[in-house]
Amino acid sequence: MTQEVILHKDDLKAILEFANKYPDSDYITVSCDSSSGIGILVSASLRAIVNQDPVIITKQIVDESSW
Description:
The chain has 67 residues and is α+β, with helices and mostly antiparallel strands. It has one helix and three strands, in the order H-E-E-E. The longest helix is centred in the first third of the chain and has 12 residues. The two termini are 26 Å apart.
């Protein structure tokens, strides 16, 4: 199954800025949730090491405020 998500250039820029804060992380997971039926929530997550602990850091890229 193929899903298409349309992102504004500013959203892509926000994902890149988020990724660049953690240069040791090579991969970003972008998650989209359209269960509200109104719009799509988009978040970006990456794995990093913080204080010698492996963590997953998630940032909301598109939220309800843009609807």
